[in-house]
Specification:
The chain is built from 14 helices and 12 strands. With 376 residues, the protein is α/β, with parallel strands linked by helices. The protein has one domain: Glycerol-3-phosphate (1)-acyltransferase, CATH 3.40.1130. The longest helix has 35 residues. GO terms for molecular function: diacylglycerol O-acyltransferase activity; retinol O-fatty-acyltransferase activity. Pfam families: DAGAT. Its main location: cytoplasm.
Length: 376
């Protein structure tokens, strides 16, 4: 009986052998298809959350770099081109509106909290990353002039901290409206001027600053990058040097308006780009100073990392941490016609306060205890 059953079973296996082989082949095909899909998904590993965020960070920084370098000229050229096409009415209407709106930058601009809170600025912040450190409270019944140091190549820390809400400046200093002051020439460029004003950026000229500090109520903070173009010519990684010794105009403005002075130092601002430094007396430095004198900015030969690799050269800044520390305010009285002695006195107080701020926080942000802030 057992033999019969075994024989019958063997017979089924023989008869069904081809079918079994076919089913095995089908299963093998299915397994192979699943492996191919898994392999394809592994090839798309760059779509992981962290890598997507990194790509968004790169895009957010790149758009600002291009805005800084070419948006003004680019928009002007495009506007002129549109005037020569069938769509000339659009450009003409904008130019008419521009004439009527010409003085808006001098009157506090046209700030947009919506633009300041764009998500793109948070990706911009996280690329480096950028942090804002508060050391003292600021009274809302006073006005302030923040002296920002150092300039760096593009003042990336100044922009992120005071022209966006990415680092929470509005939450850390409630009731204070920061205005980052930059070259007045930027506000002569179509479209760019509106983009800058939306972030609370204003021209760094007397008319604009006088208006904000005298006709715009209290709780205003003008952020002036004191070293300006001259300081940018000497910035390089590992160097902590500010152009301040003979920069006293911002102190005079503070006295005329009774605005408190606040030293601000950005650790890491000089680390994000490398540039060619021309020696004093060289032809390169002569060209830079001529540009600075007649145009208001000094062209720098600099580079960061490439778009696709940190090992290549490009326009993207290196992702180095930038930490901006806002120091203790210096109370300044209102003096309509300050004397040179008064200006020198408060300038000396400001310099001493900036050095103390630097010395207090330098070791917390990666500098050795022996590091000294050079005042030029």
């Amino acid at each position: 009986m057992m033999k019969t059953i075994i024989a019958a079973y063997s017979g089924v296996l023989r008869v069904s052998g081809t079918k079994c082989e076919w089913e095995e082949a089908v299963v093998g095909t299915r397994i192979g298809t699943g492996s191919s899909i898994l392999s394809a998904l592994q090839d798309l590993s760059w779509l992981s959350k962290s890598k997507v965020e990194k790509q968004l960070q790169i895009i957010s920084v790149l758009q600002w770099v291009l805005t800084f370098l070419v948006m003004g000229v680019g928009c002007t050229v495009i506007l002129m081109y549109i005037l020569c096409t069938d769509c000339w009415v659009i450009a003409a209407v904008y130019l008419v509106w521009l004439v009527f709106d010409w003085n808006t930058p001098k009157k506090g601009g046209r700030r947009s909290q919506w633009v300041r809170n764009w998500v793109i600025w948070r990706y911009f912040r996280d690329y480096f990353p950028i942090r804002l450190v508060k050391t003292h409270n600021l009274l809302t019944n006073r006005n302030y002039i923040f002296g920002y140091h150092p300039h760096g190549i593009m003042g990336l820390g100044a922009f992120c901290n005071f022209s966006t809400e990415a680092t929470g400046v509005g939450q850390k200093f409630p009731g204070i409206r920061p205005y980052l002051a930059t070259l007045a020439g930027n506000f002569r460029m179509p479209i760019l001027r509106d983009y800058l004003m939306s972030g609370g950026i204003c021209p760094v000229n007397r008319d604009s600053i006088d208006y904000i500090l005298s006709k715009n109520g209290s709780g205003n903070a003008i952020v002036i990058v004191v070293g300006g173009a001259a300081e940018s010519l000497n910035c390089m990684p590992g160097k902590n040097s500010v152009t301040l010794k003979n920069r006293k105009g911002f102190v005079k403005l503070a006295l005329r308006h009774g605005a408190d002075l606040v030293p601000v130092y950005s650790f890491g601002e000089n680390e994000v780009y490398k540039q060619v430094i021309f020696e004093e007396g060289s032809w390169g430095r002569w060209v830079q100073k001529k540009f600075q004198k007649y145009i208001g900015f000094a062209p720098c030969i600099f580079h960061g990392r490439g778009l696709f690799s940190s090992n290549t050269w490009g326009l993207l800044p290196y992702s180095k941490p930038i930490t901006t520390v806002v120091g203790e305010p210096i109370t300044v009285p209102k003096v309509d016609h300050p004397s040179q002695k008064e200006i020198d006195f408060y300038h000396c107080m400001y310099v001493s306060s900036l050095i103390r701020l630097f010395d207090k926080y330098k070791t917390k942000f990666g500098l050795p205890e022996t590091e000294v802030l050079d005042i030029n």
